[in-house]
């Protein structure tokens, strides 16, 4: 199996000085990304203009009559590529959408310990169940049966800004806590990928309620969440962002602002995959070519730690996803005891 060979010393953490690489010309991949992004915006603007012009022409000749059934049907408002009728965050209990006030009727014997699982970008709460049969259960089912935690799931629309997702998540959590059938004593989070960034955005908001949910959070477990943010603003494509976040743990300021404090009482555990060094020369060469986009730059690379108080853990088993990993199963029973 071909394995990418990646080095972990490409970024220095601010405020320590970053490592400087010898100047070796402009980064052609970044040039291509920038050019592609600009070209895509111009094409999109042209298509919008074309549709507007065509629609105006049809209306002028009376050919764009809309059937009454369609005219009176609810139309989703799309702003910035985001469907505004899709909620920013949804509460899910046992695979079903649930309002905070319905938690008492949906849950069987809820406890005073709540574990909140937040899936990553493009994922639903079903991602936590993948491979659960082979592992003897999911994180949620094992924590419920072994440690008496009551699991709930949040499904987030990751296309929105951190401010939108953070506000929506914080508000939904507060309503859920206020409606919880028994007084909650402890809250733990398990976030996968960008789900961990949502926890960070929500927890950074100033509390307003006298009994705020942030005061109950004792543990935050981050699975493959980007833990570094680029110190400078830069334009990246979706593919480039996924490459950075998945392989380097690096994200951008627009997705994770730097000045967000940690939850005051929480212990942070950050689980990432360990970069495996392969003896396969093809894998090493391919990994070097992909990683070259970070090493062939004239400017020093610096990054801020997003979770400075987190204890970092590495897992090496390549066959299991972090959403259902045997090492994480064992660690959760220690962390959330």
Q: Can you give a write-up of this model?
A:
This protein is of the alpha/beta class. It has one domain: 3-Layer(aba) Sandwich (Rossmann fold). Helix content is 35%, strand content 18%. The protein is built from ten helices and 14 strands. The strands form three sheets. It has an eight-stranded mixed sheet, with helices on both faces. A hairpin with a 2-residue loop joins strand 2 (78-79) and strand 3 (82-83). Helix 6 (162-178) packs across helix 7. It is globular, with a radius of gyration of 23 Å. The two termini are 38 Å apart.
Keywords:
337 residues, alpha/beta, Rossmann fold, 8-stranded mixed sheet, globular, disordered N terminus
Strand order of the biggest β-sheet: 5-4-7-6-8-9-12-14
Shape: globular
Could you list the spans in which at least 5 consecutive residues all have pLDDT below 50?
1-9, 15-24, 51-80
Distance between the termini: 38 Å
Radius of gyration: 23 Å
- CATH structural fold name: Rossmann fold
Going by CATH, the architecture would be 3-Layer(aba) Sandwich
Number of E-type strands? 14
The profile of the biggest β sheet is:
8 strands, mixed
Indicate how many domains the architecture comprises.
Answer: 1
Which range best describes the helical content: under 10%, 10-25%, 25-40%, 40-55%, 55-70% or over 70%?
A: 25-40%
Any idea of the CATH class? Alpha Beta
Order of helices and strands: EHHEEEEHEHHEHEHEEHEEHEEH
Helix and strand composition category: alpha/beta
Mean pLDDT: 76
Total of DSSP H or I helical runs spanning 4+ residues: 10
Strand residue content: 15-25%
């Amino acid at each position: 199996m071909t394995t990418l060979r990646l080095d972990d010393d490409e970024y220095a953490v601010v405020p320590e000085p970053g490592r400087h690489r010898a100047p070796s010309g402009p980064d052609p991949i970044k040039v291509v990304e920038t050019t592609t992004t600009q070209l895509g915006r111009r094409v999109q603007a042209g298509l919008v203009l074309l549709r507007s012009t065509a629609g105006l022409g049809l209306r002028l000749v009376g050919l764009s009559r809309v059937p009454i059934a369609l005219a009176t049907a609810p139309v989703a408002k799309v702003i910035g590529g985001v469907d505004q009728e899709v909620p920013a965050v949804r509460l899910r209990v046992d695979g079903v959408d649930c309002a905070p006030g319905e938690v008492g009727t949906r849950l069987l014997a809820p406890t005073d310990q709540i574990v909140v699982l937040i899936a990553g970008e493009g994922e639903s709460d079903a991602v936590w169940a993948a491979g659960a049969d082979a592992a003897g259960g999911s994180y949620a089912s094992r924590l419920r049966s072994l440690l008496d935690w009551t699991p709930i799931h949040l499904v987030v629309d990751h296309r929105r800004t951190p401010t939108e997702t953070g506000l929506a998540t914080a508000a939904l959590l507060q309503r859920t806590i206020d409606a919880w059938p028994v007084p909650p004593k402890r809250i733990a989070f398990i976030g996968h990928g960008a789900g961990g960034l949502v926890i960070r955005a929500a927890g950074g908001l100033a509390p307003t309620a006298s009994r705020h949910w942030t005061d109950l959070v004792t543990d935050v477990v981050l699975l493959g969440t980007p833990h570094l943010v680029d110190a400078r603003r830069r334009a990246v494509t979706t593919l480039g962002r996924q490459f950075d976040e998945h392989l380097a743990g690096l994200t951008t300021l627009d997705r994770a602002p730097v000045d967000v404090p940690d939850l005051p009482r929480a212990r942070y555990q950050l689980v990432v995959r360990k970069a495996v060094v392969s003896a396969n020369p093809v894998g090493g060469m391919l990994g070097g070519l992909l990683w070259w986009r970070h090493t062939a730059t004239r400017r020093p690379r610096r990054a801020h730690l997003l979770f400075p108080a987190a204890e970092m853990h590495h897992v090496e088993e390549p066959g299991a996803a972090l959403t259902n990993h045997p090492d994480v199963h064992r660690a959760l029973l220690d962390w959330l005891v």
